[in-house]
């Protein structure tokens, strides 16, 4: 007689008599009854058919997996297959590409903010901080007095150095 694992869990040829002996010894073991049902089919007894149909794996047919078929593609081939399957590949549009390496900024396009001016102050770049505060005072007329006070403090610092 084959081992327990061979009889129940492996899909090898086993005599139905061997499976019936396991079921007789362990009538509560649903996996054994499922194996018996798969071996005998409709000729199984009522209890075996009932347990086999209620077993979670009862509805799933057992098939051996051929792992060589699963691993025949290389990693690059799998990625290419995935990308071309639903056209996920990103490609450049037709025409000439733009040269983005040389960004051109005018003085008018400078980005100014209070945070930038504070960074200039913390780095000791007082003239850039003053220029930034002057631009901010032109942009925000309601805060121009505040910015004028900050500019005066920075200029005092520069004079005391």
Could you explain the architecture of this structure?
- This protein is mainly alpha-helical and 161 residues long.
- Among the domains are: 4-54, no CATH class; 108-160, no CATH class.
- It is 57% helix and 0% strand.
- Helix 8 (126-139) runs antiparallel to helix 9 (144-160).
Poorly predicted regions: none
β-strand number: 0
The major beta sheet can be summarized as: none
Question: Roughly what fraction of the amino acids lie in strands?
Answer: under 5%
> Portion of residues in helices?
55-70%
Cα end-to-end separation: 100 Å
Instruction: Tell me which oligomeric state these chains represent.
Output: single chain
Shape: elongated
- Order of helix and strand elements from N to C terminus: HHHHHHHHH
Throw out a few tags for this protein:
mainly alpha; 161 residues
Short description:
Among the domains are: 4-54, no CATH class; 108-160, no CATH class.
Set down the secondary structure blueprint:
Layout: H1 4-8, H2 16-25, H3 30-40, H4 46-54, H5 67-70, H6 75-85, H7 114-123, H8 126-139, H9 144-160
């Amino acid at each position: 007689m084959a081992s327990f694992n061979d009889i129940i869990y492996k899909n090898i040829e086993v005599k139905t008599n061997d499976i019936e002996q396991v079921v007789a010894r362990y009538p509560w073991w649903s996996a054994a009854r499922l194996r018996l049902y798969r071996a005998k089919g409709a000729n199984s007894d009522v209890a075996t058919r009932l347990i086999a149909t209620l077993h979670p794996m009862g509805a799933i047919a057992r098939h051996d997996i051929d792992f060589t078929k699963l691993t025949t593609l290389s990693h690059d081939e799998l990625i290419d297959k995935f990308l071309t399957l639903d056209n996920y590949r990103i490609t450049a549009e037709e025409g000439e590409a733009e040269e983005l390496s040389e960004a051109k900024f005018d003085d008018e396009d400078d980005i100014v903010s209070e945070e930038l001016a504070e960074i200039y102050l913390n780095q000791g770049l007082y003239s850039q901080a003053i220029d930034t505060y002057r631009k901010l005072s032109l942009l925000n007329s309601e805060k121009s007095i505040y910015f004028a006070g900050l500019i005066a403090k920075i200029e005092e610092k520069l004079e005391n150095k």
